[in-house]
Amino acid sequence: MMPEALSYSAAFLLGLAGSPHCLGMCGGITGLLSASVTAPTRQQGNIIASEQKLSNGLHSVYYSVLFQLGRISSYALLGAILGGSIAAARSFADTQLLPISQGLRILASVMLILMALSIAGWKGLALILEKAVGGLWQKLQPLSKHLIPINTPAKALAIGGLWGLLPCGLIYSTLIWSALSSSAAQSAILMACFGLGTAPAVLSIGSLSGGLRGAIKKTTTRYGFATLLILLALYPLYTFYAHQGSHHHSTEHQDHTEHTDHMM
User: What are the start-end ranges of the E strands in the chain?
Assistant: First the structure.
C-alpha cells in the first residue's frame, strides 16, 4: 500500500469526489430521517416561540450529526472486520511462504484505479457490487422500523449505522480497497476518512454544500479527481518496483565483489 498520509488522502478524496453519487442515494434518506426526529416538547409558558424554534433547530442539527457519526462508524466497523480477516489470511500465507503481499499490493492499486474510473463516469464495478449486496440490505432494512420515531441519541446512532450498510457500489468498492491495507485498524481508519469525505455534501449545509456539489459535478473536476486517484494508485507500485530493482542491483554488485575477492 501507499504511505499512510497518501492513503488517508486518497480515501477522503474518494468520499468527496463520490458525493454526488451519495446524494443521489442518500438525499431522500436524509430528509426521511430528519422528518422522523421528534424534538422534546416543553410547556410554552414564558418561553418565546422563536426560542423554541431555535431549540428545535439545534436539536435537529445534533441528531443529524449523530446520524453521520453512526454512518461513518458503520463504515469503519466494516473496514475493521474485512481488513482484519484479510490481514490474518496474509499472515497465515506468509508463514507458509506464499508470496501474496505483492499480489495484494497490485490488487489494491487496481481497485483504486477502477474507482477513479467510476468517478470519471464508468460505473461498471459499482453496479456489480450494488447488485451483490442488495440482498443483505433487504434483510437489514426492516430493523429501521423499530428505531422510528427517532427520539433518543442511541436510536439516531443506530439508524445511522444501518444507513452505512446501504447497497452502494462506491462504499463497497472503497471497502475492498481499504481492506487490502496492512491491518484491521488501517482499514477502519481509511473507511472513516472516506465517510468524512462524503459528510459535507450529505449534511447539506446551506449554500456552501450546494456550491461544493455543483463544483464536484463538473466534468473537468471529476476527471481531475480521477487522474489524481490514478496517480496515487500507481505511486506504491512505482516505489515498490524501484526498490526491488535497486535491491536486485545491489545484490548483484555484492555477489560480483565477493567473487572478485575470492579470485584474488
Answer: none
The grid coordinates listed for 236 are: 506504491
Residues facing residue 37 across a β-bridge: 150
- 150 has which bridge partners? 37
Tens digit of pLDDT at every position of the chain (264 positions): 556 778 898 899 998 888 776 666 665 566 667 667 776 555 555 555 555 565 566 777 788 888 889 999 999 999 999 999 998 888 877 665 556 767 777 888 888 888 888 888 887 777 787 777 777 777 877 887 888 888 888 988 998 898 888 878 888 889 999 998 878 999 999 999 999 998 877 776 544 455 666 677 778 888 898 898 898 888 877 776 666 555 444 555 555 455 455 555
What is the distance between the alpha carbons of residues 228 and 13, in angstroms, rounded to a whole number? Answer: 9
Cell of 47: 418561553
Q: How far apart are CA 149 and CA 155, in angstroms?
A: 9
Q: Could you tell me which of 236, 245, 199 has the C-alpha nearest to residue 112?
A: 236
pTM: 0.76
- Domain segments of the chain: what residues? 4-39+52-243
Peptide bond into 40 cis (omega under 30): no
Alpha helices in the chain (DSSP H): 4-17, 19-36, 49-95, 101-120, 124-140, 153-163, 169-179, 184-203, 206-217, 219-263
